[in-house]
Amino acid sequence: MQRIYEPQDLIEAELLLGMLASEGIEAFISGQHLAGAVGELPASGLLGLMVNDRQAGKARELITAYNGAQPLPGDEPESYLGELVC
Predict the structure, then answer these.
(1) What domains appear along the chain, each with residue ranges and CATH number?
(2) End-to-end CA, the chain
């Protein structure tokens, strides 16, 4: 198993976990039960996405593509030009 990514928070971790699962990559979140201890533990480095060694390269590629996503031209509302609104 390899730690391939450090998500900002549990919401991002769950979103990426679902995206990886949809691509057939088994992953799990390490440290998710430590998030409640923020304040007593360091605030960063608690969460990590873990995947099998064989799937680590593909998982990293998918996460890189996710992080680099841009809205399609003309797909954003007029009041939010250049911003991705979810």
Answers:
(1) 2-80 (3.30.70)
(2) 32
